[in-house]
Design a protein that fits this description.
- It comes from Pseudaminobacter soli.
- GO terms for molecular function: cysteine-type exopeptidase activity; dipeptidase activity.
- This protein is α+β, with helices and mostly antiparallel strands and 475 residues long.
- The protein has a domain at 3-295: Penicillin V Acylase, Chain A (4-Layer Sandwich), CATH 3.60.60.
- 32% of the residues lie in helices and 19% in strands.
- The chain has eleven helices and 20 strands.
- It has helices at 107-111, 122-132, 136-150, 216-222, 235-239, 247-260, 268-276, 362-365, 370-381, 388-419, 423-459; strands spanning 3-7, 17-22, 29-34, 37-38, 44-47, 60-63, 67-68, 71-76, 86-92, 97-102, 158-163, 168-173, 181-186, 191-194, 201-202, 210-211, 233-234, 288-293, 303-307, 317-320.
- α2 crosses α3, α9 (370-381) packs parallel to α11 (423-459) and α10 runs antiparallel to α11.
- The chain is globular, with a radius of gyration of 22 Å.
- The termini are close together.
């Protein structure tokens, strides 16, 4: 399902807006730094879903942009048969952040979706925005244009949050094959959680706050789902699941608004808490992200805080746009990667059956897997929720505070190097900082896991039943 939260800068101690969240998928997750790329005239990309998807369709080719922006994203390999690799978003060099969040469409829209649907799927749209958008508003325009020109391949309804330093937009793309979408603007005073993504009452015509295509309301009228004489158009009631704001959304929005009323307002640690609290985050959270929406002097200084699994038992570590590569433990591994149980790191059968050869580099696979190690710690902590879990949670929050204290000097030093015409040295500094903390936190994870395991074993508290333990959640 995924989860996203936007916090406008009027509520924060540092005067920055934030976009945070995580992706709910069971497969492998890995961090990617995608460089800026140029493409020849006539280049295309493959988008859509296959006949094997849960909601089937056909792959198609659409034009690729001549130039694609540098960006960071988390990729994964499994969701309802949609072709991998997939992404729920990230951050690009222009400062546009993307979160993708499930949003159920009305059952009748799902039923009327053509089985030969074509056009970009939710992940395609997230990638396209990361590659092309220079603002959150432009992200909405890009998605709207692509849906109108090429269609939309759905798995039952979806939404995105697009954010930049000035504003954010919640955009919902509906099932049904009718090109239905709606977008709501969020500003500096907004606190908005999505799980699922929702939009409520909208005006009869698009305005500065709400955007939608010309046929958006008339389609509902023609289908007999809406009568203008009976009141305003409620998007969630007409085209969505009809449930409004879910309990978890109401709880976290109310809690963050309460924190915003304090003299100190919302700090970075509060933003982290909003995606790390065990009331909202568990094993289903494949990773965590926090993006401070800044305006740095150099694009390489944009940063995305990344947790390799749900931040309830993992730290968020700053990843700078300017770093050259991701450390091997945080790259793609075979652990939880869909299809890897039928493949080999061996080429003997390549000529006859090339599909059985693993394409993950052997040198990467022989490195430690951060996702595996942090998952191990998570499930150790979940077996002792009154003791080990709070200790692990506190440890990572202390580590994040230490990183945050170091960050201003690193940012200032790298900025001075960029200003002095020494970009290579600046990038070297950023690489060293991000890599050092990614490595150090993985080392901490291994130590915490060893200690937790021997404690549970000594107490006879290792859970060997087929009923996994985890904290209760509001979702």
């Amino acid at each position: 399902m995924s989860y996203g939260i936007y916090i406008g800068r009027a509520h924060t101690a540092d005067g920055l807006s934030y976009l945070a969240g995580y992706g709910d998928e069971p497969s492998s997750h890995w961090l990617e730094i995608v460089p800026r790329r140029t493409h020849p005239k006539g280049a295309t990309i493959t988008v859509g879903v296959t006949p094997q998807a849960v909601m089937p369709g056909l792959l198609s080719e659409i034009p690729q942009a001549a130039e694609c922006a540098r960006h960071m994203r988390v990729s994964y390999t499994h969701y309802l048969g949609v072709p991998a690799p997939l992404t729920n978003g990230g951050l690009n060099e222009y400062g546009v952040a993307v979160r993708d969040i499930w949003s159920a469409s009305r059952a009748a829209l799902i039923e009327m979706t053509p089985t030969d649907q074509t056009g970009p799927n939710y992940s395609d749209l997230a990638k396209i925005v990361l590659e092309r958008a220079r603002s959150a508003r432009e992200a909405v325009q890009i998605v709207a244009t692509h849906i109108a020109r090429y269609g939309y391949s759905t798995y039952g309804g979806n939404s995105h949050i697009f954010a930049d330093p000035d504003e954010a937009w919640v955009m919902i793309e509906f099932a049904g094959g009718k090109g239905l979408w709606v977008a709501e603007r969020l500003d500096e005073t907004s606190i908005r959680a999505s799980r699922p993504g929702y939009v409520g009452v909208i005006p009869a015509e698009p305005d500065d706050t709400f955007l939608f295509p010309p046929h958006f309301i008339t389609t509902a009228i023609n289908l007999g789902w809406y009568d203008p004489a009976k009141g305003p158009f409620d998007v969630n009631a007409v085209y969505g699941d009809g449930k409004g704001r879910w309990e978890g959304v109401q709880w976290i929005e109310a809690e963050m608004r309460r924190r915003a009323t304090r003299p100190e307002k919302i700090g970075f640690e509060d933003v982290v808490w909003s995606i790390a609290t065990e009331k909202l985050t568990g094993d289903t959270a494949g990773y965590g992200q926090v993006v401070p929406l800044v305006r740095p002097a150099h694009a390489e200084m944009r940063v995305m805080w990344h947790a390799p699994i749900g931040a309830v038992t993992a730290p968020l570590t700053p990843i700078f746009m300017g770093i050259d590569q991701v450390p091997a433990p945080y790259a793609q591994h075979r652990y939880l990667t869909e299809g890897e149980s039928a493949r080999f790191l061996d080429r003997r059968k390549e000529q006859k059956s090339p599909q059985v050869v693993c394409r993950i580099p052997q040198g990467i696979e022989t490195a430690e897997s951060a996702v595996y190690r942090f998952k191990q710690l998570m499930h150790l902590a979940f077996q002792a929720q009154d003791t080990i879990l709070p200790e692990v949670f506190e440890h990572w929050r202390l580590v994040e505070a230490k990183i945050l204290a170091e960050l201003p000097a690193v940012v200032r030093s790298a900025t001075l190097l960029f200003d002095a015409g020494e970009p290579a040295l600046a990038r070297c500094l950023l690489n060293d900082f991000s890599h050092r903390w990614l490595t150090e936190t993985l080392s901490d994870c291994e130590a915490l896991s060893r200690a937790a395991y021997v404690r549970l074993r000594a107490k006879g508290a290792l859970n060997v039943t087929d009923q996994p333990l985890s904290p209760p959640q509001l979702w």
